[in-house]
Amino acid sequence: DLYMREGHHGIHLYVRNVFITDDCKALLPEYLRFIKGVVDSSDLPLNVSREMLQDDAIIRKIRKNLVAKVLKTLSEMKEKHVEDYRAFFKAFGPVLKEGLHADIENKDKLLDLMLYPSTRTEGDDWVSFRDYVDRMPAAQKEIYVLTADSVQAAKASPLLEVFKTHDYEVLFWVDPIDEWVGSAVTTYGEKTIRHIDRGELDLDKDPAEEKSEEKKQEDKEPASPLLDWMKTMLSGEVKDVRFSHRLVDSPCCLVADEHGMNATMERVMKAMGQEVPESKRILEVNPNHPVVAVMQSLHSENAENPELKDYADLLLGQALLMEGSPLKDPARFSRLVSSLMAARSSERS
Q: pTM for the complete prediction?
């Protein structure tokens, strides 16, 4: 009954061995509703009313002590009985995560209890924030996270490519609640938590592997007319088109603004029946990919070449598929792929 809000989630309350209620929700916060037990107090009056239970100094003190005890017990389990804690977290982790948004006072303690899959984990061998920070390379300054529908989808994301080249670990937020509580989880200790599918990202700005701004500008200049053309051509479907510092092997990807809504959050809200405001993401293209080189050549020869529109639509379609979003025109995308395959076959023969 963890997700039945109308169910019985409270602790049984007794006063000097006299039963008062079997559902005292005031004794524990909602995110600890998996806890069952009995509290017997000698400080409350026998005629305590439900109204008094909601606003009583003794109840508040008992609640604070109970929360502290539960979190301490979970912390000890995590440190001393790793396998037991993993089994617990697999069952109750999504509920416990609600506290990150609701219990500001204990957020740091809760953060230490979190476990996540990552680019370096397999199976249920998930990693905590503390372990992640302990094994960060010296050059890494932030904690990187990627939200996705599943671990498999996260590991296949092109957004990870640059992190692999730097040997930076990325945490996967694959529970639907992860994206919801993400707004309340922006730091761990002195480290900023950075979503890799939002905003600008340039790991080359790290002092350990510095790349001059002049060199970056030189890389951008040859294809900038193509970018301007793509911005105009795709203006109804994307907010912007820009070069990517995330991609190494893939030609393109979609990212949200620094504080925008990503595709995962949109799907979660729609699944909950919420109205999702229309939002456009940013198409990032890899300036070093052969496809972009072909498009640059076509654009240089003739900016009105109809093949350019086909290439741009294919790139956008690829990016949508990789982030798990539906294609607006699957039939056209299929025709374009078939045409390219047929053209390639003709070239070989």
A: 0.84
